[in-house]
Amino acid sequence: MKVLLGISGASGAVYGVRTGWALHSRRVDLHLIVTKTAWDILDTEIGEGEVPRTGATRGSRLRSKGLPGRKRWLAEQMSVPPGEFQLYDENDFHIPFASGSNPPDAMIIAPCSMGMLGRIAHGISSSVLSRCADVALKEKRPLVVVPRETPLSVIHLENMLSLARAGADILPACPGFYDRPATTAEMVDFVVSRILQRIGIDAGLAPRWGEPSVPGKKGKRGGRRGGGA
């Protein structure tokens, strides 16, 4: 199963990192696109933080690395060997999934910014990521969009409704609490489990309602992401 994972420029970068780890753990053929703003947020929320402002310039240390360097960094955060996933430049319209002749089996955008969501909802393929989402929709492949924003304006809600009508799954990053999560990581896993369920994969990370807790759940978590509640 070929899965394209997009990480766009919304807070909640950990959802993308953990989703990448979970997909790899289920042995999918994993492909990633990370937007320019998403690299900055990854660095701010998970990495070393933003480079100090110099004149009019501003950016992350990650952005200063080449694509191979960013791939190595992302592989370390996901606890996935660099050779076991593909990372594409966000400006490379020659990647396979930019054409309807070679769509992914499923696509996930986690997290998804409101700007990215709006462009996809209106068919504005101004980037590789939005073009690939357009392909997934027109080829009727599963597209799971994970918005991480609050509060939501009428524009946001109408864009989500347009996407849902077009066939996308809108899965806000809203963790449940019936399993009494003790850490931020467990709340992240709740959302990641629901993401993978939408493309037919059991991540094995969180229990379903009315079922016993996942054996060995406490303390057995792959991927490098933040911890205490």
Report on the structure:
This protein has one domain: 3-Layer(aba) Sandwich (Rossmann fold). It is built from seven helices and eight strands. The protein has helices spanning 13-25, 36-45, 67-78, 114-121, 128-138, 154-166, 184-197, and strands at 2-7, 29-34, 50-54, 57-60, 86-88, 106-112, 143-147, 169-170. Helix 4 crosses helix 6. The longest helix has 14 residues, at 184-197. The relative contact order is 0.17.
- Lateral strand order in the biggest sheet: 5-2-1-6-7-8
Output the CATH topology.
Answer: Rossmann fold
Architecture (CATH level 2) name: 3-Layer(aba) Sandwich
* Largest sheet descriptor: 6 strands, parallel
Rg calc: 17 Å
Tell me the number of helical segments per DSSP (H or I, 4 or more residues long).
Answer: 7
Describe the protein's topology.
Elements: E1 2-7, H1 13-25, E2 29-34, H2 36-45, E3 50-54, E4 57-60, H3 67-78, E5 86-88, E6 106-112, H4 114-121, H5 128-138, E7 143-147, H6 154-166, E8 169-170, H7 184-197
Parallel strand pairs: 1-2, 1-6, 2-5, 6-7, 7-8
Antiparallel strand pairs: 3-4
Helix pairs in contact: 1-7, 4-5, 4-6
